[in-house]
Model the fold of this input.
Amino acid sequence: MLNLKGIRILTVTAAGLAFALTASAQSSTTPASTGTPAATSTTTSTQTGPAQASPGTRRNLQQQRIAQGVQSGQLTAGETQHLENHEAAISRETQNMRAQDDGHLTAADKAKLNRQYNKTSQQIYDDKHNANTAHYGNNEVGQRRENQQDRIAQGVSSGSLTAREAGKLEGQEKAINHQVAADRAANGGKLTPAEKQQVNKEQNKESKNIYDKKHNAAKRKP
Done:
């Protein structure tokens, strides 16, 4: 009997130990009840999108896009003049806003400027993707126009030309282009020697204007 009792005691003890181990294992994998749902591996992001770019950053980015359009020929001189006039107007408004608030921009100021930059940004896209492109012929007149547009584009990209300066230069380029087109139309698509000489003088004057504006004290602020 003693031996049987001993066996029964051992059996009961082993069963109790197995139950205890099983309960312990379950408790380690099951969240404790605290009255709140257990945390899951999926979390809800509270991060917002990137902060709205500052007016200066947006201005510089849009000037880079304009410069690329001039360089590639996607923007004509007239389109570039129009865009740069808009950019110059926004820059003047920004300066006026800062002057009225000790050099700072209010939240309302920034929101207004952002709307204006959005509008100009769309116009840049539209002008770069429309049917108008700047074509330069394989001749002396065409090569000079292309060279001067490249110099303007470099000045816009580097900041050595302000939007106002670039707009004026592109206005002059547009006037020369119109004159060349009118002269060609009047002469069966060609330019007479006298017309070429006149255009060359105007391009020389434009070339000096580009140089002067790129090397004066006026710079686009970073």
